[in-house]
Amino acid sequence: MTKYEETLTHLFSFGEDHILLDVNSGAVHQLSREAYRVVDFWRRTGCALQDLSGRGASEISDMTPGDLQDICDELENLVSQGFLMSAAPELEGYRLPQERVVKALCLHVSHDCNLRCRYCFAGAGAFGGDRSLMSFETGKKALDFLFDASDNRDHVEVDYFGGEPLMNFSVVKALIGYGEAESARRGKILKQTLTTNGVLLKDDIQAFLNQHDVALVLSLDGRQEVNDRMRPTLGGQGSYHMILPRFRETVDGRGGDNYYIRGTYTRFNRDFFKDVRHIAESGFSMISVEPVVAAPGEDYALGQEDLPELFRQYEDLARYYVEREKEGKAFTFFHFTLNLDQGPCLPKRLSGCGAGCEYLAVSPEGLLYPCHQFVGKSEFALGDVDRGITRPDIGDRFRESHVMTKEKCRECWARFLCSGGCHANAWNFNRDLHEPYGIGCAIEMKRLECAIWIQAVTV
Q1: For 314-323, how does the pLDDT look when each residue is reduced to its tens digit (9 = 90+)?
Q2: pTM (2 decimals)?
Q3: In what helix (H) or strand (E) does residue 194 lie, and over which residues does it extend?
Q4: H/E element holding 245?
Q5: What CATH number is associated with residue 252?
Q6: How far apart are CA 225 and CA 414, in angstroms?
Q7: Phi/psi at 100 (nearest 5 deg)?
Q8: Residues 74, 126 within the same domain
Q9: What Rg value do the Cα atoms of the chain yield, rounded?
Q10: Which pLDDT tens digit goes with each residue over 359-395?
């Protein structure tokens, strides 16, 4: 097989289970040990299926001619039905749709924070600048920009972000009300989300957010000792004892829906499966725990040498995930949710989050950036909420940085599931939007294998 043909399929083992993924169709095949050996030999040698029985290779020569023929016949049948070695969409020279439609905004309502998380990419909330809060007038202009720039799209989204957005709750509250009224007037459906560390999530705020159906991202790293090591207060105390009860109350108040507990693992808790399990067994069913992204010199940063242990943790988590489902105690782990049936539309599968084009971030003073991780980087400012996008060329750079323009992505089996990785990580580590962050790629591929295995064994 050519390099391209090899990436039409992905073959891997998970314990005693052997899985074959057809990359273009998303079809998943669970193989016997014998079929796994045949497919492995076929992929490595490039031998035509109909010729395999005549090769006499020692690797498969111990199989009876009849068994080998049966396996080859079944593989050929899958090929003929389009479930194996299926054709890719015509992508050579592909360009993403050029219409400039903004679908989502991240409003930085607070460039200040009441925690001092050690791994914070935002510099304790200030994003490299002065501590500041967004005014209602700026937020209102941002929402109007979103409604206008979304053109004829019915569904739009806004995330109230920081720093800690509840430090500016009076403005957040007013903007939520304005967003509801204005979206109704314009015939739009607005999804509003708020990301919080929970320190200020008092009863009245919980009630307001629940009443207005605001989706929540609740920051918690897992076990108390893990969370408090990396997420202390300004005075250096732990935050776990304050936030966990408030998260429970908030989630219970919304019937256990419309939220995610979102954590970060570092080199200090490479056994992060225990943290996911702790969160799940604390009564939360929507969980996302993700790897820290940090400069190599930081003592909590993850390196290539950590990957084998991280892979084992994901495998342990996947087994636990399946066990809980069988016990009727299922929970959702964000990175194990996967749509293999062609997933989203082709542009979304190629470009991922849409940063710089469909998704923008707004600083407290109203500047527009490609996403929340680019805020404060003046060279990436696309415009502002008063004038709109004045530097469309910056957005074009992001639009043109997709799976088919990244050499490593073009030859990766995960290309239509990963969508090319995070633009910010590519820039921060490689100063090149077209050069993916290697550790992130390795972790994402492992998570995808776990997600595929879960689907294979739970169907």
Answers
A1: 999 999 999 9
A2: 0.92
A3: strand 189-196
A4: helix 240-253
A5: 3.20.20.70
A6: 35
A7: -100, 85
A8: no
A9: 24
A10: 999 999 999 999 999 999 999 999 999 999 999 999 9
